Amino acid sequence: MSQTDPIAELLTRIRNAMRARFNELIVDHSRIREAICRVLMAEGFLDGVEVGGEAPKRKLVLKLRYSASREPVIRGIQRVSRPSVRRYAGADEIGRTRGAMGVQIVSTPLGVMTGREARRKRVGGEILCRVW
Q: Which domain holds residue 49?
């Protein structure tokens, strides 16, 4: 099955797994998916990201994070730039998400990073998604 938007598929699978209270989620590997998941882990939205398997059939194993009362840490996750409508922003145009309680994940020439890092490094790029 071909995917027209693998990033949206990743975000939807994370959203659904959180709602179903899964502890782990296994998705197909790609470099952009791994970079997005590593940013989510660094920001505290995921507990862990592991890459497993051999080269042609690699998988990402995501450890989902919950609060002490078993509520999902990720309240919302939204795809911003889509294949049909790309959203680009300069360093000055990258805004804050939910009153700085969330993050924007941006693909820049320096790699995938949060909007906060992109503003600090004075680099713009494609806004992939928002997580809060």
A: 6-64
The alpha carbon dihedral of 91, 126, 30, 52 has a sign of positive
Question: Residue 115 domain-assigned?
Answer: yes
CA angle 69–72–75, rounded 5-degree value: 130
Compute the distance between CA of residue 67 and CA of residue 78 in angstroms, rounded to an integer: 21
Tokens standing for 52? 């497993």
Question: pLDDT for 35-92, tens place per residue?
Answer: 999 999 999 999 999 999 888 899 999 999 999 999 999 999 999 999 999 999 999 9
The total of structural domains in the chain comes to 2
Residue type, 87: R
